[in-house]
Each structure stands twice: as structure tokens, then as C-alpha cells.
Amino acid sequence: MPIIETSTALLIFWGVLGYLLGSIPFGMVLARVMGLGNLRTIGSGNIGATNVLRTGNKTAAALTLLLDGAKGAVAVLLARAMAGEDAAQLAGLMAMLGHCYPVWLRFNGGKGVATFLGILLALAWPVGLGCCAAWLIGALTSRISSVGALAAASASTFLMVVFGAGQALLLGAVLTLLVFWRHRGNIKRIKAGTEPRIGKAA
């Protein structure tokens, strides 16, 4: 088989694997296993950690946050170890798309913040840590999770330049735009002053 065909086949494989990893709805799985109900009928109806927290179960919310981040990181790290940086970046992108648009949930998934942070930690850990810090500062000062998410996304491109992660700059920009797109409703509510605060019902 020609080299170019082999490379294309490998990229497709890691892209598909990244998507499948990203599409695992850990929030819904944990809510079901721990008897917390159907997340679609709770709070915002979202499948992420912020909405899991609205069930009152902090352990489930923490596990959702960790697992949603881990699936993005695992996709990147596996692809990098087995097929190189191009495959790693593609796997990361597809993991994010898998979380936001999972085939199992009729392409109606989460907003991708934890997965976004996990991908960045695996791609370039200083950038990932910086974005985690930006999320924490934004969320703590405003008591609004989406403000933290938008702060982390806004900081990512700048941090990639600062820490010399230019090889992932395009991917970082695409992921940032995706985070903003998934939060477009939140942005409207922030402007209107109606965005719910952390731990409150949507």
C-alpha cells in the first residue's frame, strides 16, 4: 500500500477513535448508575459536570468533570504515541466533536469544556494548566461556570503563543471557536443577567 494511503488510513482511524471516545456521555452514565435521574430533565438538560452538580451529588459532578477531561486527553495521548502529532491533533478535535455532537444522543451533547481542557493538557500541559487556572479564576470571581469556560477558551490561543505550542495553534483556535459556539445561549444570558450561578437550577 502506498505511504500516502497508509497515512490517510491511520488518520481516519484515529479520528474515528477520538470521536468514539469523546462521544461517551459520562455525565448521563454516572447519573443513571448513581440513581440521580435523567440529566435531560434536570436543570439545563446538559450532560456535563455543571448540570450533574445540580442533582446535588458533588461526587458525581467531580467524576463527570474528570472523565470528560480524561477522554479528550486519552484520545490525544494514544494517537500521539501510536501515530504522531498529526494524528494526536485530529484525535483531539474529533474527541471534542464527539462530546459536543455524540451519535448516541442524536448529536445533542455537552458544551465541551472539560474535554477541551483535557485535550489541551495532553497537547501542551503548560497551556492546559493555564487554561484551567483561567477557568477557575473566571468561575470563582463570577460564580458562573460559563464565564470560566469562556475565560479558559479566550486564554488558550494567547497561552499557546507564550508557551511555544505553535504547532497546535490552529487546533486551539478551532476548539476555542467551538466552545464559544456551544456557549452562545449562555453568552446571551450573561448579557441579560439571567445566567444561573454554580449550583443553582438553570
Write the layout of secondary structure elements.
Layout: H1 3-22, H2 26-33, H3 49-53, H4 58-83, H5 85-100, H6 113-123, H7 125-142, H8 145-162, H9 169-182, H10 184-192
How would you characterize the overall build of this protein?
Keywords: Acyltransferase, Cell membrane, Lipid biosynthesis, Lipid metabolism, Membrane, Phospholipid biosynthesis, Phospholipid metabolism, Transferase, Transmembrane, Transmembrane helix. Pathway: Lipid metabolism; phospholipid metabolism. It catalyses: an acyl phosphate + sn-glycerol 3-phosphate = a 1-acyl-sn-glycero-3-phosphate + phosphate. Its EC number is 2.3.1.275. It comes from Sulfitobacter alexandrii. The radius of gyration is 17 Å and the shape is globular. It starts with a helix and ends in a 10-residue tail after the last helix. It is mostly helical and 202 residues long. 72% of the residues lie in helices and 0% in strands. It has ten helices and no strands. The longest helix has 26 residues, at 58-83. The chain has helices spanning 3-22, 26-33, 49-53, 58-83, 85-100, 113-123, 125-142, 145-162, 169-182, 184-192. The chain has one domain (3-192). The model is unreliable at 1-6 (pLDDT under 50).
Order of helices and strands: HHHHHHHHHH
Radius of gyration: 17 Å
pLDDT averaged residue by residue: 91
Distance between the termini: 54 Å
| Beta content | under 5%
